[in-house]
């Protein structure tokens, strides 16, 4: 049996409570029946098991975990865990908090109800945690930035793992994920003269397939969605930027042909861009 060990290193930049902060990282070869809790933490605490076995408990569930498993403790969550009597855990951990942490944990799918994930063999997460600990031990000024970089890599690995259908966390259906990617692409690129063909190439899918699933999920084609998005944004510019010409508004929403823009605007809004601007400027409360 391995001799028990324990080491931890804290972030030399003590600035918790902001956008994102990695607090500390550590590793331990636990002793037989090493136990912690029941207790709560005021931060997120991710454990990655490298060898051995043990039990992790939340208020509602018990998980028997071994090599390749990881578990996430949420702030304020009552938990306890204990190592096996004959093959105790060896694990690494990293603690973090901040507003971005809340958002990314939600995206990862590691909820208080389903806080456990089985990682694929030779997953790099233990190495990333070890590198965070090494940077903290160096006490270098750059260690805080390095820790955030490695934490993002850890999150990326967990998100990739969570997409596998065999996981405890429920993966979002592929069609819905693809449609969200399309919406994100159009929302971020509408101001540029991009086409649906360019989007399909960027996402790596056939245009006919993307058009079919997009209409299935949203009720409209990608072309209609992109045009409506551009017109909606142009309405905002017409209201808020009276200094811009119609041609400049058109170009600002990714349409280089201002005559085409005006025709499509009138088709969707019921009046020309100039009429819309005149009416909204004379009636500031009107935004239709």
From TrEMBL:
Entry keyword set: DNA-binding, Transcription, Transcription regulation
Gene3D superfamilies: Homeodomain-like (1.10.10.60), Regulatory protein AraC (2.60.120.280)
Gene Ontology molecular function: DNA-binding transcription factor activity; sequence-specific DNA binding
Top-level taxon in the UniProt lineage: Bacteria
Record PROSITE patterns: HTH_ARAC_FAMILY_1, HTH_ARAC_FAMILY_2
Every HTH araC/xylS-type domain range: 180-279
One Pfam family hit: HTH_18
Protein name according to UniProt: AraC family transcriptional regulator
Organism whose genome encodes this protein: Paenibacillus solani
């Amino acid at each position: 049996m391995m001799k028990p060990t324990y080491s931890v290193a804290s972030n030399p930049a003590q600035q918790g409570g902001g956008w994102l902060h990695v607090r500390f990282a550590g590793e331990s070869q636990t002793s037989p029946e090493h136990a912690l809790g029941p207790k709560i933490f005021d931060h997120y605490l991710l454990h990655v098991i490298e060898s051995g076995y043990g039990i992790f408990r939340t208020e509602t569930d018990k998980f028997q975990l071994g090599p390749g498993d990881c578990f996430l403790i949420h702030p304020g969550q009552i938990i306890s865990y204990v190592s096996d009597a004959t093959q105790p855990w060896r694990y690494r951990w990293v603690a973090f908090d901040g507003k971005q942490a809340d958002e990314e944990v939600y995206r990862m799918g590691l909820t208080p109800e389903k806080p456990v994930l089985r990682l694929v063999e030779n997953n790099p997460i233990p190495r990333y945690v070890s590198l965070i600990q090494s940077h903290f031990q160096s006490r270098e000024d750059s260690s805080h930035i390095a820790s955030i970089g490695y934490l993002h890599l850890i999150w990326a690995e967990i998100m990739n793992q969570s997409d596998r259908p065999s996981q405890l966390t429920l993966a979002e259906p592929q069609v819905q994920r693809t449609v969200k990617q399309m919406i994100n692409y159009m929302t971020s690129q509408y101001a540029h003269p991009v086409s649906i063909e360019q989007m399909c190439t960027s996402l790596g899918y056939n245009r006919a397939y993307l058009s079919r699933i997009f209409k299935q999920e949203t009720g409209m084609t990608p072309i209609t969605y992109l045009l409506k998005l551009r017109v909606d944004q142009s309405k905002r510019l017409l209201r808020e930027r009276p200094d811009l010409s119609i041609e400049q508004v058109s170009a600002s929403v990714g349409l280089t042909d201002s005559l085409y823009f005006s025709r499509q605007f009138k088709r969707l809004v019921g009046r020309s861009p100039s009429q819309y601007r005149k009416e909204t400027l004379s009636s500031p409360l009107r935004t239709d």
